[in-house]
Write a structure and sequence with these properties.
This protein has 9 helices and 6 strands, in the order E-H-H-H-H-H-E-H-E-H-E-H-E-E-H. It is α/β, with parallel strands linked by helices. The protein folds into 2 domains: 142 residues, HAD superfamily/HAD-like (Rossmann fold); 67 residues, Putative phosphatase, domain 2 (DNA polymerase, domain 1), CATH 1.10.150. Strands 3-2-1-4-5-6 form a 6-stranded parallel beta sheet, with helices on both faces. Helix 8 links the parallel strand 4 and strand 5. It is globular and about 55 Å long. The structure holds 1,6-di-O-phosphono-beta-D-glucopyranose (B16) and magnesium ion. One of its GO terms (biological process) is carbohydrate metabolic process. This is Beta-phosphoglucomutase. It is an enzyme of class 5 (isomerase).
């Protein structure tokens, strides 16, 4: 029994709902290219890197583009996305997250971020929760996207905790698969129908109690 575990949080969809801002920014790019991009299509982009997201959108419209154009759109999209983050504050932390972060801190557990986003740090800063994280691994630190487990393995390694003693909170299927490949405990945050590969599933953090966290720590 090891009482110090690594608790690794995904960002978008787990800590904050930035998917709505990604959607608005991608929609502008799609519109300018006459591609119909819906909220349903946006689901395909969750947990996916920025570069891959653009390829998915171009695929939806059967649009071929030069690398130069793609680079231009990627910059435009990110500038627009960042403009939505300007007014972000602690009110955007999803319900129940702070309670769990405080609990883990009180219990002296390792806390890490494992996100595909290259904008993770400013988001944690603006929402006032950066200081809870011992380790941050984001899109700037990894070369392989989820379901590759690189992001989570790196987080556990930096915390100096064995993957088998690590727990991942994720809202995307690719993220759950990455956690499972890493042989970590996978906890899905969202719909059971979508996240059925996870070891545990919760609608959100408001329905996760101290007993559950305690059972993971003492496992
Ligand atoms: P950025 P996560 C992911 O965050 C988002 O779910 C995904 O939609 C986005 O494309 C990706 O970050 C990259 O974000 O453009 O900020 O680098 O869920 O892995 O925390
Ligand atoms: Mg996510």
């Amino acid at each position: 029994m090891n009482n110090k575990k690594a608790f690794i949080f995904d960002l978008d969809g787990v800590i904050v709902d930035t998917a709505k801002y990604h959607f608005l920014a991608w929609q502008k790019i799609a519109k300018s290219l006459n591609i119909n991009f819906t909220l349903e299509d946006n689901e395909l982009l969750k947990g996916v890197s920025r570069v891959r997201s653009l390829d998915i959108i171009l695929g939806l419209g059967n649009v071929q583009a030069s690398q130069e154009d793609k680079d231009k759109w990627l910059i435009q999209k990110n500038e627009d996305y960042l403009s939505y983050l300007v007014d972000m504050d602690e009110s955007e932390v999803l319900p129940g997250v702070l309670k769990i972060l405080k609990l883990l801190k009180d219990k002296n557990q390792g806390i890490a971020l494992g996100s595909a986003s290259k904008n993770a740090r400013p988001i944690l800063e603006k929402t006032g929760i950066l200081s809870y994280f011992d380790v941050i691994v984001d899109g700037n630190d990894v070369t392989n996207a989820k379901p590759d487990p690189e992001v989570f393995l790196k987080a556990a390694q930096l915390l100096n905790i064995d993957p088998k003693n690590s727990i991942v909170f994720e809202d995307s299927v690719a993220g759950i698969q990455a956690a499972n490949i890493a042989e970590m405990v996978s906890v899905g945050i969202g719909e059971e129908t979508i996240l059925h590969e996870a070891d545990f599933i919760f609608k959100d953090f408001t329905v996760m109690d101290e007993n559950f966290i305690e059972s993971l720590i003492t496992k």
